[in-house]
């Protein structure tokens, strides 16, 4: 971050956090401070030179921050947040127009509109540098990611063991959510659906599960703010030979994409590699919208960029973590999910799971699954 400030002749960066912790909502202050806030506002003032400072809310949450403080801080009531940040910036005597802001995509309008008045004009954006930096896992964030992957895998194992015909989709989702929380996930984004012929993954409904249902599970727990995702498919009573065949096609596309995902490769190249075997099998039509939107996306403190999708020019870097998922509608079998969390290495992307997903079986009347 400091190197970026120096290269652009900026005096400082202000990273704001709204307190809305979401799978698709970035929180720059959380990333720079390594602290998950309780209050509605938080900001890290990071100068090009000198010590950073955290401004957090509410004041009574200060003892919790002291337990793991990473920088000097001041804790104030929410209504005093903006004036406190303004006073901190004034105290530092930063040059006009030389303070960049990363507000995330969930900042309130009142805060977004306060920056120009506080900084003497529309501030330069620091969103990209924050998003790009949080994609590269250091030792700490990679450890959090691996813990999240383990939680996701155990949650899916529990899904296989506890699901049965007669349950409703929302009961299945509730069981998975409870499993995630019991294992220590602080959050969990999930899509969960079941059908004899899924058209896409969606949020759970009150539909009753039946034998032969193909269950789609997109499981995304978070540990210390790091979200990670696995994509799984399983069939109540066991898959048909045709379902095995189509899943194997998607699995081969996933493995091809992983082999190609090396530092220096663009995300659009990965899309082409994944789509190639699917198109060759006669499904080129279904590799495009509205049947397919993305072949994966990055994950870092709530940011999904870059997406592994057409139109993105992002270049992969070593130690970048994302989920790669050639999830695909297949007309003969319906939508199938097949995806892994991976880390980019010089030899290609490596799965972070203990074993890559297979088309699972939910055994009926045997108290277990495979």
Please tell me about this protein's structure:
It is globular, with a radius of gyration of 23 Å. The protein has a 5-stranded mixed β-sheet, with helices on both faces. Helix content is 33%, strand content 21%. Helix 7 (139-162) packs across helix 8. The chain has 370 residues and is α+β, with helices and mostly antiparallel strands. The longest helix has 24 residues, at 139-162. The protein is built from 10 helices and 16 strands.
What is the 3D form? Answer: globular
What is the distance, rounded to the nearest whole angstrom, between the alpha carbons of the first and last residues?
47 Å
Major sheet details: 5 strands, mixed
Output mean pLDDT: 93
- What value does the Rg take, in angstroms? 23 Å
The number of distinct helices, counting runs of at least 4 residues, comes to 10
Strand content: 15-25%
Unreliable spans are none
SSE string: HEHEEHEHEHHHHEEEEHHEEEEEEE
Alpha-beta classification: alpha+beta
Order of strands across the main sheet:
4-3-2-1-5
Helix content: 25-40%
Compute the number of strand runs: 16
Task: Write a brief structural summary.
The radius of gyration is 23 Å and the shape is globular. It contains ten helices and 16 strands.
